[in-house]
Write a structure and sequence with these properties.
single chain, mainly beta, 22-stranded antiparallel β-barrel, five-stranded mixed sheet, 43 strands, 11% helix
Amino acid sequence: MKSIQVIATASILLIGCTLAAVATAQQASGSVGVDAAGSSSTGEGRNLEEVIVTAQRRSETIKDVPFSVSAIGQEQLEQRHITDIEDVTRAIPGVSFGTGAVQGQDNITIRGIGSQTGNSAIGLYLDDVPIVTQNPWQPNTYTGATEPHFFDMNRIEVLRGPQGTLYGASSLGGAIRYISNLPDLDHTTVTISSDLSHTHHGGLNYDEQAIVNLAVAPGVAAIRFGIDYGQDSGWINHDQFISCGLSCQQGQANSVYGAQDQSGVNSQLNLVLRLSGEVKPSDDWSILASMFYQKQYSRDTSLFYTYMGLWNEDKLVPERGLDTMYVPSITVNGNLGWADLTSVSSLFLRQNKKTSDGTYYNSDFIGYLADFVFPDLMTKCPNCGVAFDALPGPAEQDQTTQTLSQELRLASKTPLESGRPFSWIGGLFWSNKAIHVTDNEYITGANALFTQLYGEPLQDSSFGVAAPNDDFGHANVHEDERQYAAFGEFTYDISQELKATVGDRLIIAHASWDYNPGGFFTTGVSEVRDSVDYHGNTPKFAVDYKLSDEVSLYANATKGYRLGGFIEPVTVIQQCSSQFEALGIDPTHLPGTFKADHLWSYEVGEKSQLLDHHLSVNASAYYIDWSQIQQSFVLPCGAPYIANFGTARSHGGELEILGKLTQDLTLGLNAGATHAYLTSVSPNVGAAAGQDLLNTPSWSASLTGQYERPISDTTHGFVRADYDWVGPSHGTFSVTDPDYTRPSYSILNATAGLNFGNVEVSLYGKNLLSDYKVIQHVLINSLESAYTLRPLTVGVKVVVKLGEPRR
């Protein structure tokens, strides 16, 4: 490993030194420079590129957006090898994650606002299509945020703070937008790339991409098609499972394991298909049809057991996952003269099938009941129940989310276009989200073993319930949520320097569900049907003051709102009346729903382009009040539950600095600090006022540098390095839980490459300093697991672009 690390670092530095030496020689001879877009420039150094975003549903520079927003463009995504949302959270301040240890199962948090239960707190969009999924009805489980593969992506926009006015009820803490490349109406191009890398303690990774853009009728119609296929090798080893005997039933983790029998069990396959076509029948109208398909298959998670050493586990059940996503949409844009019309019709379909190892939670629990709770079984065969802990306990969950949505909006011309001192945007939104979840808790071989040990079937014993096909608990759940909204924003230019914005979104929603359980683990619960209505709004107030052509100041106050949800009924074996009474809840009439929560966010900031556009400085500070927080928790008796259990505050700030020190050298610093904590909580829920909110580092910082320089008339090279720090955080409210304190950590990534016109070759390394500390502990089915960064990975990427216009 050390040799790989040294070779990778030395190779990148060698290319960088060679490039710098050539650049120095050319600078002395007065050579011509090449700007970031590829066009030639002479004279004084280049300016920073203007960053264009559509955060306010219209194209504008990031400097003109009166709230905190960050963007990572396609070039940065590729050169920094940002491949998933975890990489994004380290590159952009104020954003963090709680790992699911598999892509597509992470929990995203912005400024301390996240979700461990119920509806998502962060809005997710693929272009203009909402791709938000909902956490399951089970407490303490998390489906994970939808994560489109970063393929043919134009940019990623991160909008901090509540975005309910333009993005809806799920944008309580902010929104993340994945913006793909549009078909090019004017050029026929082909892009092919191959990425080969090796992961320490793992194996070969590869990612193969091909994108074809065909201008069918130049200027009028084009088709764009892309395919991406790749595999990430695993680095987790599996050892033979050895039963831990009676100590398991007494709540102690296994400490005995066998020899290694598999390596790299957590590999993952990715397949992505993109197809889009655009027709522009006139200068004023365009129709864009697109389709995104993605399939991700994981052989196992990236979690391991600390008692076995680094990156080792011995689970009886591989925790496989199959995450499939399909997103077709049709977008119509029209210029009506007095306003611009946009219609977005879309379908979002995601199926998330995953298996968890429930051996320690389910199999051992059955054995515990037989050995310590049911007297007849204890008499027939004393201490025989311990044999059940060696039976595999696959817990299989299949969640399908299907969302039909339609948005229709009108946006006026800007004051610059219309000559009037105001602008506005307004629209209507409708969605129908249908969720179907099946859950089955198996204990493989339990029926046969039970009859062998006790001489009778399960249903004739104290268990009293049959387990056909060894299924000890199952549930079939249907949920339907219909949402209607009307929204609008109005901006008035009070003077040339000062403008004010007011906006609001009115939300009406109706949700219903059908919960149909069965099996021993759901004893005492019959089919439950329920429905609930929601009415909410998300007002917004903002002012933007132009201090000069280079500097603007802003302030805003915005409300965030999130719909509530349904609660899984408490079973007879979970019932603990006195503890519900301590919460002020009648145990004989437990609520079937939890309420919507909401917050107010107050933000001030500045955005500037200084030193003749050679220096960009964006800074923000915020204060958030969060009420009726939706939270899952476990009562002292062991019963999981969901409720609105308290209030919280979050305050902090972000700073983004980017400077072009010379014509060829660009340095950047991103930093953020967050103090998010509970201000009040209900009694007996396992949390206390003053405790920090979860998955929220107290600080983070990222230092970036890039040097780019021509080597000849047809060749130029670049060297880039990124060093990210992430501060300490908390993963649970329980001070005795190993995940209560998460340590700070850092990661160094670097890339060096050469561009030969239509061919680019780069060498890169990720986690070059090999930071392998456990950054998060994860409790799954009562078994503690650990998570580290992906080990040192070194690779080579080759990109060939044919038919592109000269830049």
